[in-house]
Amino acid sequence: MDEPRATMIDVAFALRGDTLPREHRQALAAALTDRLPWLTALPQAGVHRINVSAGAGPLALLSGRSRLTLRVPREQAAALAALSGARLDLGASQVDLAGPPLPRELLPHGTLYAHQVAAASDDEIGFLADVETELRQLGVSGRRLCGRLQRLQGEALSLHAFSLMLDGLSPDDALRLLEHGIGPHRLWGCGLFVPHKSAAAVGH
To answer: Is 112-201 assigned to CATH 3.40.50.2300?
Structure first.
């Protein structure tokens, strides 16, 4: 029997450029919604964190493997072709989206990880209570592992966030969590889950 396909899908673009501001989330969300205004009307659509070089300083180096990946409803995936070849102005840097969009199916692994889930404050206990409420509404159960507090900075907004891992998920629960995510600010990369091989890496 074929496994059910998720209602959402990830679509990746190769990134071309030298650098990326470390605090680029607000500028990236603005650049994308300027070209694709319908993104703002889809609360579950989001933009995955872009992997950049570690270190300090306002600018990070992009590698040849850096990707811009969006999570959108399956029926909207074809509309992302409008981004092919686009140049995005991120303030101190510009990046080009190279090549065709590459779709990636969401796979319901038993362990899922979110690099950042937006929090109402820096209170971990309150954050976990809010997560519990949202998971209960989704009908998702599993072991929760909360990682370190993070501060996401934009020009007009700053967010508290924690990394979060859920372990021991059933395939149905994992698929539901991948489709819905947790919390707001998805276009900043918050609340989007990806498969993870080990619960030992939470907080990294």
So the answer is: no
Dihedrals phi, psi of 118, to nearest 5 degrees: -65, 140
Q: pLDDT by residue (tens digit) across 82-111?
A: 999 999 999 888 999 988 899 999 999 999
Cβ atoms of residues 194 and 48 within 8 Å? yes
Structure confidence by residue, pLDDT tens digits, 115-165: 999 999 999 999 999 999 999 999 999 999 999 999 998 877 889 999 999
First vs last C-alpha separation in the chain: 37
Least confident of 15-24, 151-160, 183-192, 194-203: 194-203
The CATH number that domain 8-104 falls under is 3.30.70.1890
Helix (H) or strand (E) holding 99: strand 94-104
Cβ pair 148, 203 in contact under 8 A: yes
Contact 8, 71 (CB under 8 A): yes
Report d(CA 112, CA 108) in Å as an integer.
Answer: 8
Helices H / strands E in the chain, number of each: 3, 11
> CB neighbours of 37 closer than 8 A, spacing ≥ 6?
none
Do residues 69 and 104 make contact, with C-beta atoms less than 8 angstroms apart? Answer: yes
Predicted local distance difference test score (pLDDT) of residue 4: 66
What is the CB neighbour count within 10 angstroms for residue 186? 23
pLDDT at 203: 40
